[in-house]
Amino acid sequence: MNMLLWVVFPYICLTIFVVGHYWRYKYDKFGWTTRSSQLYEDRLLRWGSPMFHFGILFVVLGHVMGLLVPKSWTDAVGISQEAYHFMAISVGLLAGFLTLAGIAILIYRRRTTGPVFSATTPMDKVMYALLVVVILLGLANTLGWHAAGIGNTGPVPEHYNYREGVSIWFRQFLTFHPDADLMAQAPLGFQLHLLSACVLFALWPFTRLVHVFSAPVGYVTRPYVVYRSRDERPGAGVGSRAPQRGWER
Amino acid sequence: MRVMAQMAMVMNLDKCIGCHTCSVTCKQAWTNRPGTEYVWFNNVETRPGLGYPRRYEDQDEWEGGWVLNRRGNLTLRAGGRLKKLANIFVNPKMPSIQDYYEPWTYDYETLLNAPAQQHFPVARPFSLISGKQMNVSWSANWDDDLGGSKETAHQDVMLKGISDKVKFEFEQTFMFYLPRICEHCLNPSCAASCPSGAIYKRSEDGIVLVDQDKCRGWRMCISGCPYKKVYFNHKTGKAEKCTFCFPRIEVGIPTVCSETCVGRLRYIGLMLYDADRVLEAASTPDDEDLYEAQRSVFLDPHDPAVVREAERAGIPGDWITAAQRSPVYKLINDYRVALPLHPEYRTMPMVWYIPPLSPVVDIIKDTGHDGEDRDNLFAAIDTLRIPVEYLANLFTAGDPKPVTGVLRKLAAMRSYMRDINLGRDPDESIPEGVGMDPEAMYEMYRLLALAKYAERYVIPTAHSEDAHRLEELATDCAVGDYSDDMGAFGEGSGVLPTVAQENFAMLKARQTADTLVGGGSKSGRVNLLNWDGKGMPEGMFPGAGSADVSPTDEAAQIRDPQPGADLGDPR
Ligand code: SF4
Ligand code: SF4
């Protein structure tokens, strides 16, 4: 059972995530977009969208810090456990609540603005629900981590240090020899957070979340005006839209 | 010198009758789809007026185009790359649908199905955005023919500095029409604003296009274009813009708007320009010098040195010949009667306009004078400052001199040609008075008044060794029918059917169906490409099942009038 939950299932999700993106990119470049609804409404969006996006960017950064940087490294640099906790908690909570408030505004807007609601696909709804669950569980963990209480109902009592459990599991997961026991011993909150995140990652390539991977960093360096020849697309002839798609390319 | 070729257009505003044929045919060809209801690649504005979208020319508000920064360098008005990226989650300057207008349709079902009753049934307007009943209060040409201009026209951005002098009294007003398409700029700020690099300028003919596969819906181009000629397709989440009908241009035929123009006032031809000098010209310090600066970028296709350089740059021989015969070049550089629209945006626009003399002529005629007399016309051009200043605000960043120059040439042509038409001896002093020789003036008259199709449109066909493999004329602006339902990835995702496939499927469906109709689709889009006029095509009227309206009670009333037309999915 542990094996299934903490090894097989996450890898299945990872595979769907990777292969799904490859397939979606091949098959559906045209559908690869943010599907912005700013045209319909931008009073609420003006607040909600930057709050959510900047919030989640910091959350991602926090995860990178917490999951990828081993405790021994921060110890070596001389950051004490207390200092680390304080930083992680404060930044984590701030970013978490910013994200939560942002997504709350966005969901409220999506539900109450008629045009935005009717442009919402079933997939969007599933995605939003999952996203909220993942964020809530994550926040609960951060809170519970120090403030003890919620989220600490697992086998390990108070002050579960994820950097000695989940983080190690995660690094092992990335190097393909995960130890299921590490996750099995984590508190329930962490376990649920991980499982829901896995589902989210598996759905990712089929939602509008794909736009994360088109973050336009190249814009900073490319020349302002792009010139392109008519015939650059393979198979494109004069006057032809080059109907080749997907596997034909 | 780096020679590049640019497909360009000139419109002779004196001949525009404001019939909107160009807008309608363009819409039929390109934006007759859900998601683009409010999109007009070609629109015709009555000036003075607010334009479309409302007050788009107010760059203090919309921040489109380029400006010079304090060091005199050209920068995007809305801020550089990093500012753009910082604003990527919500574009602070994007017009909302209210700044365009909320598109609508009518509840025709009530008209068709109403029982006999004492009062006429009424077809109520329904929003195509929310599906709810709405009050129509604005549209793309709401102030057409100065309709309601007493209320709105004083908000016209171009009246700045002269608004106190313009009275919208019936006897004193002036008006003309301004058809607008994308300018296919030499220095496009839409492309420069695009974070994904999806907007590109074709190196062969300078047409500016959006790569629908690379666009990620960041919406920066929409605010970046000062002419507001990139639109957001709210169904596909991608930007779309005028394509200069490139599939037609590539095979040597003019754009749909030009082809169908009732006034035959559009000219299409090539311009050769020096790409190395574009930035320098766009950085000209004084706004009023931008017109001349842009003209100086153009190269004389008759100059042997230019021809040699053009050949070296890989421009084919027939393209150079076409550039030499280009009516656009003649109007811009030989006769100098065409002017750019808003050169002060510094995008180096390539759709130029011959300003209308008619506001001046009309006023002379209204006062009972001879509107073809040279002296009357010249005197009027000099004294009727308001139309001239207004035109200067549009075409020369406020400098009246070039506008006066053009109007004097047009006036001179009028009176010179009258003598000829009446069989009198032509008065050579007339053309000489405006700095033209009589032959050139006659040629200009011919080009403006008589030129046939082949003279108005000098379009070399595209060179491609595999041109014979052409299967169809289609588009980068996906006009395919997409999928019928909103797929898992949202509307418009997945493989695009080609236009030929779609038509084949529809023809087949009609030939094998029991009913007379065809040419429709479940998504509510009507395709009249092969409708033979029999029966009512499915989707002619919006159905309750179309995915883009929310199932409100009102919307549910508009039911599909074709219960029996179950043709199955043609694909
Ligand atoms: S007018 Fe056309 S080419 Fe110029 S900036 Fe606007 S969309 Fe781009
Ligand atoms: S079709 Fe020609 S005459 Fe009619 S509005 Fe358009 S540009 Fe003007």
From TrEMBL, chain A:
Chief localisation class: membrane
Keywords: Cell membrane, Electron transport, Heme, Iron, Membrane, Metal-binding, Nitrate assimilation, Oxidoreductase, Transmembrane, Transmembrane helix, Transport
Domain NarG-like: 2-230
Signal peptide annotation: none
Presence of the UniProt keyword Nucleotide-binding in the record: no
TM ranges: 6-23, 44-64, 84-108, 128-148, 188-206
Topology within the bilayer: Multi-pass membrane protein
Name assigned to this protein: Nitrate reductase subunit gamma
InterPro entries: Heme-iron_electron_transfer, NarG-like_domain, NarG-like_sf, Nitrate_red_gam
Record's subcellular location: Cell membrane
GN (gene name): narI_1
One Pfam family linked to the record: Nitrate_red_gam
Domain of life: Bacteria
Automatic annotation (TrEMBL), chain B:
Keyword Electron transport set for record: yes
Region feature Disordered, mapped onto this chain: 537-571
UniProt entry tagged with the keyword Iron: yes
Pfam family, one: Fer4_11
Subcellular location: Cell envelope
Keyword annotations: 4Fe-4S, Electron transport, Iron, Iron-sulfur, Metal-binding, Repeat, Transport
Chief location bin: other
Cofactor: [4Fe-4S] cluster; [3Fe-4S] cluster
Domain 4Fe-4S ferredoxin-type: 7-35, 173-204, 206-235
Coiled-coil parts of chain: none
NCBIfam families linked: narH
Designated name of the protein: Nitrate reductase subunit beta
Organism: Arsenicicoccus piscis
